[in-house]
TrEMBL record:
It comes from the Eukaryota. Component of the cytosolic iron-sulfur (Fe/S) protein assembly (CIA) machinery. Required for maturation of extramitochondrial Fe-S proteins. The NUBP1-NUBP2 heterotetramer forms a Fe-S scaffold complex, mediating the de novo assembly of an Fe-S cluster and its transfer to target apoproteins. Implicated in the regulation of centrosome duplication. Negatively regulates cilium formation and structure. It is found in: Cytoplasm; Nucleus. This is NUBP1 factor. The gene is Nubp1. Its main location: cytoplasm. One of its GO terms (molecular function) is metal ion binding. GO terms for biological process: iron-sulfur cluster assembly. InterPro entries: AAA+_ATPase, Mrp-like_CS, Mrp/NBP35_ATP-bd, NUBP1/Nbp35, P-loop_NTPase, YlxH/NBP35. The lineage of its organism: Eukaryota, Metazoa, Chordata, Craniata, Vertebrata.
Length: 286
């Protein structure tokens, strides 16, 4: 895909490290600011609500790592052990790794060229001791950049279940999501489906529904029909989502009755079902 091939030795190292990862899901978006990291964080929380499942959240948004803040882990450091870097744990069954843990301050700017970013992504996959993991969620930067090609290339040594693509309803956002869908098809990355964030807003006082981002071209629903991809669901705007993220708390736990929480739970269930189905198909092939 236009980038250096992984050597056989590197592929073997990556395979050895990631052998115990059952499912890998990439979270993508065409644009910044559409709620991709929020979705990654809540997907991890939602999956980890089942205590029998081990969940890992890897943040490869190197220039804008917001996962430490959203997971309540700001200021945490990465520790090294004999078996590699240890993830930072939110719960016993939810581990997180981010470039944010390697910066001396959350305000530090990361000014790196491609090769250094690629090197760090490889290190995260090869040197982090994830242990036995049911779900590895990868939060990526917006767009289709170096980081996406690198993660695809390094994970091709193992397997990826697919990508979840996040958008908002307006055409300006959908335009970039179409590029993202084409990128996935070019690099043969399965698309689990699309999530439309900020789809509408219900006023808590008068209960009137408003379209904050009007879907002038039919929103994600029309785009998914046209491009033959699944629409996993629409998440309404809830101001509590931003508040919970800023406090490093799980919105799903803080607002269990919110329509947005119900929507998230349905979407997470659909992703789980897709992954289980994908796993069964792979076992049949093998």
């Amino acid at each position: 895909a236009g980038c250096r091939d992984v050597s056989a030795a590197e592929a073997a190292e990556l395979r050895a490290r990631l052998r115990a990862v059952r499912h890998t899901v990439l979270v993508l978006s065409g644009k910044g600011g559409v709620g991709k990291s929020t979705f990654s964080a809540l997907l991890a929380h939602g999956l980890a609500a089942d205590e029998t499942k081990q969940v890992a959240l890897l943040d490869i948004d190197i220039c804008g790592p917001s996962i430490p803040k959203m997971m309540g882990l700001e200021g945490e450091q990465v520790h090294q052990s004999g078996s590699g870097w240890s993830p930072v744990y939110v719960e016993e069954n939810l581990g997180v790794m981010s470039v944010g843990f390697l910066l001396s301050s959350p305000d530090d700017a990361v000014i790196w060229r491609g090769p250094k970013k690629n090197g760090l992504i490889k290190q995260f996959l090869r040197d982090v001791d994830w242990g036995e993991v049911d779900y590895l969620i990868v939060d990526t930067p917006p767009g289709t950049s170096d980081e996406h090609l690198s993660i695809m290339q390094y994970l091709s040594a193992t397997h990826i279940d697919g990508a979840v693509i996040i958008t908002t309803p307006q055409e300006v956002s959908l335009q970039d999501v179409r590029k993202e869908i084409n990128f996935c098809r070019k690099v043969k990355l399965p698309i689990i489906g699309v999530v439309e964030n900020m789809s509408s807003f219900v006023c808590p006082k008068c209960k009137n529904e408003s379209q904050i981002f009007p879907p002038t071209t039919g929103g994600a629903e029309k785009m998914c029909q046209n491009l033959n991809v699944s629409l996993l669901g629409k998440v309404p705007l809830d101001p509590q989502i931003g508040k919970s993220c800023d406090r490093g708390q799980s919105f799903l736990a803080e607002a269990p009755e919110s329509p947005a929480t119900l929507s998230y739970r349905n979407i997470i269930q659909r992703i789980q079902e897709y992954c289980e189905q994908h796993h069964l198909q792979e076992e049949k092939i093998m």
